[in-house]
Design a protein that fits this description.
With 335 residues, the chain is an all-alpha fold. It has two domains: 94 residues, no CATH class; 190 residues, no CATH class. It contains eleven helices and no strands. The longest helix is centred in the N-terminal third of the chain and has 60 residues. The radius of gyration is 32 Å and the shape is elongated.
Length: 335
């Protein structure tokens, strides 16, 4: 970001300085009585037309190249997004289990579903505008259990207000935003922390009925292409959330952020530079066609020439920046 800001400042300085000095040189050393605006502007129009054609060719080739890269990247995003959707379905089925949440002294599922059904993970964590005061927080924590209640709210967050039916249907392609990914990552961490720090004698998925677990078994198989370890059910689910934290979310956020940026900066710079050339071209045509007094035509012509020279220097800076950007190889995640 700092480099980008410095490049823009450098371009602006070069443009203004070059325009000013070019204009002063023409004004001091060129004579309005011996110059021919028709020849100068005709050559200028031809030169600018060629430059615009070259820039347009570059822009389209770059756009097609960028599109191809993004299409390939989208394939990886879709594969990872599919896994995330399967994880959210696991979360949905975990949340729907009754025996599992029926702990010795309390049942966070029953309390949240019937007494605090509008409570969110963000509110409970104090990350929302409607966060709880200390008194309410202590009261709710006593009723739902701090770790278990937070995990249940996280599972609820992973469902994200989608209908129950959507978690039973066939997979449909889904693009997750960066905000969604950051949110789901926090939820997943809470669920992992719950399994990591709970007594397996109390928090035990094995006591849930087989019908509910069958859905989880199927989704686990789709994520890892292997069957779940039924003798270590808690560990398998904990490791699933750990896998998403250590691998899937990093890759998905990285790739999504790359595809979220609409245009590469060199492309934008080149497009703006072309627009300046287009403005200079139109001004040249007007000055060439209109019947203007000789001295006024001289002033307008050297002003247009100064802008042309300044914009050409700007194009050189853009080319240098683009080459440097093209040759730079960013960190590549191996998939």
């Amino acid at each position: 970001m700092k480099l980008l800001k410095n490049v823009n400042i450098l371009r602006l300085i070069i443009f203004l300085v070059t325009s000013f000095f070019s204009y002063k040189i023409f004004l001091n050393f060129a004579s309005p009585y011996v110059f021919d605006k028709t020849i100068i502007l005709s050559n200028l129009i031809t030169t600018i037309s060629v430059l615009i054609a070259i820039i347009i060719t570059y822009l389209f080739s770059k756009l097609f190249s960028e599109k191809s890269i993004r299409v390939d990247r989208k394939k990886d995003i879709d594969e990872l997004a599919k896994k995330l959707t399967y994880l959210r379905r696991i979360a949905f089925h975990l949340r729907g289990m009754n025996r599992f949440w029926n702990f010795k002294d309390f049942n966070p599922k029953s309390v949240i579903d019937y007494k605090y059904k509008d409570l969110t993970w963000e509110q409970y964590r104090g990350l929302d505008d409607k966060d709880l005061n200390k008194r309410d927080y202590r009261k709710i924590s006593y009723e739902i259990g701090e770790i278990s209640g937070q995990a249940y709210l996280a599972l609820k967050g992973l469902q994200d207000d989608e209908s129950d039916y959507s978690f039973f249907g066939e997979f449909h392609p889904l693009t997750y935003s960066l905000n969604d990914l950051a949110k789901y990552r926090d939820y997943s961490n809470s669920v992992w922390y719950f399994f990591e720090n709970s007594d397996s004698e109390i928090v035990n998925l094995a006591k849930e009925n087989r019908r509910s677990l069958n859905f989880v078994d199927e989704l686990y198989l789709k994520i890892f292409n292997k069957k779940i370890d039924k003798d270590n059910y808690n560990k398998s689910i904990k490791d699933t959330f750990s896998y998403f934290e250590s691998e899937v979310f990093d890759k998905l956020i990285y790739l999504t952020s790359l595809n979220t940026n609409y245009f590469p900066k060199p492309l934008i710079y080149s497009f703006l530079n072309m627009l300046v050339y287009l403005i200079i071209l139109l001004l040249s045509i007007f000055i060439l066609v209109l019947n203007i007094k000789e001295y006024s035509a001289f002033i307008y012509t050297i002003l247009i020439l100064s802008l042309f020279i300044a914009n050409t220097f700007d194009l050189i800076v853009i080319m240098f920046y683009s080459i440097k950007k093209e040759l730079k190889i960013d960190d590549i995640l191996k998939f």
